[in-house]
Every structure is written in C-alpha cells, then in structure tokens.
Amino acid sequence: MANSKTVLPLAQRPLDFVYYAFFASHLCASLLLDCQAIYPERFVPTILVEANKMYISMTRDPLIGSVFGYFGQDMSQHMLWFKMFLYLEAFFQVPVFIIGMRQLRKGEFVPFTLRAPPDPVWLGCKYVYPLLLAYGASSATTTFACLAVLLTTPTTTPALLASNAPSLDTFQRQLLFGSYFAFFVIPLLMAVDMTFRIKNLIGKAVKAEKLE
C-alpha cells in the first residue's frame, strides 16, 4: 500500500501535465512579450523589443498592437481596458503560473483512516485548487473579451492599411483566433475541473464528519 509520501509522477496525471505545460509556456510569453507594455522602457532588452515589433508587424494583432502604440495614440487610449488586463496578467497570473507549476509537481496518496475508504486516496495538489479555480475563471473571462475583439476587427482593405487602422486579413484572423482560443479553452477547462475537484473534496469532508 502506498504511504503518505508516495508521489504520482506528473506525466501520469494528464490534466495536471497539460496545466503545467500551459503555465510554463504562458509564463515565458508573459514575461518576455506581453508585459513589455508595462515595463519601464530602459529595462527591456532591444532583442525583445524587436521580437515584439516583428510579431505585431506579422499578425497586426489589434490588442497587443494597440497598447504598444502601433495603431496610434487614440487607439492606444481606446484599448486602455486591455492594458489593465496586462497588469492583471503581470501581478496575478504570473505568480499563479509559478505557484501552480510548483504545486502541480507535487501529489501524494494518503493511507486509509476512519475518515477514508479502505484504499489509498489520490489527493493531488489539493491546496492549490482554489487558486487555480480563481485563475481559470478570471483568465477565461478576460480572454473571451479578446476573442470578441478579434472577431469584430474589420477585414483589411487598402484604405484601412493606408490609415494604419486595426484590420486583419483572413490568415491573420485565423492565426490570432487560434492562438487566443487556446488561452481561453484551457483556463475554462481548468476552472470546470477545479470546481469538480473541490466539490469532491467537500463531499469527502462531509462524509467524514458523519462518521465521527
């Protein structure tokens, strides 16, 4: 029988592995690209600035491009709400990525007691579940708004290009939508998953109280 120190490898927990990989990739994108919009300019290496310019030039991302002033000051001010999302990303999501990755690597079985069935119970990293639920719900909500912007951004025309207004051709829209959609569906899955995990833990606690 497994004891209280037995750890189930992350690779054997498919959803936790997906969340871990998502956090790792998102952490890199946040620190190196997204959060440039709120860093003091003197602290941003030239290579990262150029990488961001290349991304905006290729995709004409109406969200990132606007907060970086690519489409003019008026558009930058209009997208102030998205810049607030970037502050949320920097000061809430980035810490969640770090804490989440650390906790998702953990996991243990507990031996049976009077409060548990006569078999070891997989608890996983249960202490981080509420935080991941909050993150998932928050991130899915903010990204949903971003998807709406991508769907309603005008289709590129010569006139829009000449005026440097936000616009997307078919390829750019599909590329951006596919990219942002992943950042919507995985947090949404996480929020639903964590809700059921917490519900199950509460159910076990209620049953345990009845056994006392």
TrEMBL record:
Name of the protein this chain belongs to: EXPERA domain-containing protein
Pfam entry (one): EBP
Transmembrane segments: 17-39, 80-99, 127-151, 171-192
Major localisation: endoplasmic reticulum
Membrane topology designation: Multi-pass membrane protein
InterPro entries with a match to the protein in the record: EXPERA (IPR033118), Sigma-2_receptor-like (IPR051987), Sigma2_recept (IPR016964)
Coiled-coil residue windows: none
Recorded GO CC terms: endoplasmic reticulum membrane
Location of the EXPERA domain: 15-191
Recorded family membership: Belongs to the TMEM97/sigma-2 receptor family.
Signal peptide start and end residues: none
Subcellular location(s) of the protein: Endoplasmic reticulum membrane
Superkingdom in the source lineage: Eukaryota
Keywords for the protein's UniProt record, in alphabetical order: Endoplasmic reticulum, Membrane, Transmembrane, Transmembrane helix
